[in-house]
Every structure is written in C-alpha cells, then in structure tokens.
Amino acid sequence: MTSRKPTQSDHPKVHEAFGLMKAGRMDRREFIRVAALLGTSAATAYALAGLPEPAFAAGNLPFPADDPNAKAGGILKIGMEVQKMEDPATYSWVQMSNQTRHTLEYLAMTGPDNVTRPMLAEKWDAAEDLKTWTFYLRQGVMWHNGEELTADHIAWNIERWLDPKTASSNVGLSTFSAMVEETPEKDAKGKPVKRMTKGALEIVDKHTIRFHLNKPVLSAPEDLYNYPTAICHPSFKPPISDNMIGTGPFALAELKVGDKCILKRVKKTTNGKDFNYWGGKVYLDEIHYYNFVGDNQLSAFASGTVDGVYEFSVEQMDLAKSLDGNIVIARTAQTICCRMQVDQKPFSDKRVREAVTKSVDNGVIKNLVYPTGGDIGQNHHVAPVHPDYAPLLPPLKRDVAAAKKLLAEAGFANGLELTIDVGNTDGPWHQTVAEAMRDQMKEAGITLKINVMPPSKYWEIWTKTPFGITAWTHRPLGTMAMSLAYRTGVPWNETHYANPEFDKALDAAEATLDVNERKPKLMKAAKILQDDSVMVLPVFRPVYTISAKNVHGYEGHPTQYHQFNKVWKS
Predict the structure, then answer these.
(1) 101 near 559, Cβ under 8 Å?
(2) pTM for this structure?
C-alpha cells in the first residue's frame, strides 16, 4: 500500500509530521498518533502512513467494525475488584472507572493501538501554535433522561474539574494545567490556589466548545480519555452510583461494593422515550462485574464463574496456560513507585533519599518479580514502550559505599530505620519488591520495616504516607504520568515534589511535535527527577488477562480499560 500526501485541510503540524516521517525521523505509528490527535481521521492517518486500515480505524466511530458473525444477547461476566463509585472526577483507580465506562463516556477514546479517536466529540482541530483546540460534538447524542448532549454540559464538567473544591487529578493533565493560573488565595497548607483562567473555555455554539490554553499542548484529545475525565450529566451529585445518568449503552442496575456491579442495556429513557445509542450496534444485554481480588480472579475463571478477568499475576501464568482460554499479554508503562515525601523527615534531606536509591539494584528486582516480560525502571515514569522514550540516560548502578557515605553525612552513621507502607494493590509482588529492597538496603545500613495493609486501606493513605509503594497505571505518553504526579501542586503529587526546573523541562517536552526533538527534552525532565532521588521505580510490568473461547472481540488494553461495545458471546 502506498502513502498519499496531506491536503490543505490538514493541520500544518500534520504536514510537518508527514515530512518527518518521510525523512525517517518519525516512525509511521507515531505519525498516525500525532495526525489523529490533530484532527485527521484515523482512517486518513493510516492511509497517509501507507498502512492498511485496522478494525479500530474503520468509519467515524471509535469502536471496531461490526462482526458479521456476531450474535446479539447474553451476559458478560468479569472477575475484578468491585469498588465504590463516588465521583468520577476523583476516581483513583481503573477498576471503578471500568464499572462506569459503559454508562459515562468520554470526548475521545484511545484504542488498543494507542491511537486516539473521537468519541462524544465528532472531530476536533487545533490552532497552529497548539494553544487553541476546538471540539465539535456529535449531534443527537442522548442522555439516559432524554436530553441531548450539548457544549454547555461539557463546559460544566470541565469547570467542575478545575474547581479547587473538587480536588480532581485532572488539573494535573497537560491540557487542564494549561487552563488554570495561581491566585492570591492560599490553601490550608499555605500554597497558592489555582483557578480556571478567565476565557479558558468558549462555548462557540450548541455543539462546539473551544479550549484556550496558556501554553502549547499536543495531547489534548489524549488527555480526554484519562479515566477521571468521564462526562457526567450536570445534575450529578455524588455518589454517582445513586443516580448515574450517562450517554452510554448501559446503565447501572445494582452495585454492592465488594460483591458485584450489574450493568444492563438501556432501552428506554427515564422520560419514556426509546433510547437511541449514538455508537452503533451493541451486542451484550448485560455486563456483570463480580468481586474477586487479584489472586482469586483466575480461579474464578477456571471454575467457569466468570468469562474473563481484569488481570492475573505472573505467578499464575502456568495455571493460565493450562486453561481453555485466550491469554492476552500487553507491554505497558504500568509500574510501582516506591516514593518518599520530600518534605517529611528524614526524606526532606536529599542525602537520605539518595542513600535509599543508591542502595537498591532495580535490575535485580525486575528479574526477581518479572523474569520474562517487562522493562527495568530508572526511577522516573518514562518507559521503553512510550513513543517519546529515549535510552539517553546511563543505567542506574547500585553503589552501597556511596549510600553509606551519604547516610553518615546526613547524621546517620550508625544506621537508619525506615518503614514502608505496602498495600499490594496490584498483587503480592509489591511486597516481594519491598522485601528485596529491605535485603539490599540492609547492606547500606538502612533497616527497612514493611507495613503490609489491605489494598483498600492503602488507598485511604496513599497521598499521606511518608514512604509507600503506589501503583501507577499505563498512560500513552511518557509526559502524562510525569505531569500528573510531579508538577508543583497537582492533586496526585504524592511525593510533595516541587521543582520549577522540572516543570519548565516538562513544558518544553509537551510542546514539541518532532518526537526525535521531544525525546531529549523529556529525558531532561526525567534526569532532573532521577537526580532528586524522589523514588525507587524498579520495573515496568506486563499485563496479563484471559477470556473464554466463546467471548469474541475482547481486546487487551495496556491501561486495562474495558470497552465492550462490540464484544459478543457465541
């Protein structure tokens, strides 16, 4: 298949990216991702790259093409932790968003191929300087109460995300961090309160909304599929589980936290009209989530209780291979961050943090917990799977002598005792990592105590504990987790890290289209974070899932997002 050239209607940056691709400075997959983000349809982007159109690029919908063999009806049963559903804007993990995802939808959707396509938005375009983004909504999208989705509804959601009272992590996303500014107000900790910049949102007409950003951002559509950006009806009041009005094909029928979450197809609106779903055919009648913690999900699949699982662990791979199912393995940027709060003693002394990071061998830990698959972490969130990753930084090396010297300089010549909180929120391998760190740190004079707690308890204290192991999910770009977790003052900044030099370096990376130019800029931000010794991030893990042979269209997603619109059972 031969490629064609962009037209005058394509964004200037698409022309620039096309030239980079032709010159061998951008690969074709990265070109497709960039072109789609800048408003080119996914199908056109694939054609420009000279690649055949996959199912996920077909038509103007973000979902796969209809399977001519698909049968309507049936219940899909998934084993996954069933969590509370309070406020989608403050969701703290993927499982609760999966329970919501088929009811509350998003402006954009990133598929398993890492390409972002329009969802509730029909299309978008960006100004040449990437500071102005215009989103055009699909017309006729129906809420479950019979109302039509409008630009006012989108504006209501964004204004709410950016209200400090909401405390949404969305403020940390590149797009929304470019829509706020510091005010003279101070929060309870004496830090400046950020509020939405005047004029950041513009309602162009009933179905068109425009973002005016205070800096260039390439990833605006990509940010809009981050799981806390689900679009709620303006009547929403928490908890969402009490009255979840959405635009998706399913509605919440029953929720028992720690037991089950039942979703059923919407056929009538609450005002008695026929419900017409904008997204085409949907085959399943119901989706059931049954509560199984990680270690028990595969057992539930083996017994036939469920048709698929959220994930199974590396320790269970041999069992999974013995079962009659389809195993899906995804390379990801999912990780754990063994992070220290930089304003809490003794971690407020950088020498202590450096002693911790220098006493640990990430490669040894990675090979211990994931001997096959996965990648060694380098104490920052940019992973080899990211398109903007570059192996520019030298591999970290363990240096016990240097760790001892730093401890002595910090006043701990006779040793230091620390406690790390572990919730095993992704499974017992978290504790295995902590135990390996304990054994390695002991040689440097650090005694590490491990406080193991239930996963639910850890999520109650994950932003409060001075030293804890926090799981971070995959995100399509290396810039995204860095922005969410380490920008000064963002809600998910669990380390309390604040470095203007880091913020500036990250800004530069986020504004750069040429991926080869962006890589060293992002690595500069990564090096700053690495040098400040904020964390031990030892591994980027693969994700394993499985589905029954009679389940069709069940796609693995590196972020473990469930989008079952085209799944069917035979």
Answers:
(1) no
(2) 0.76
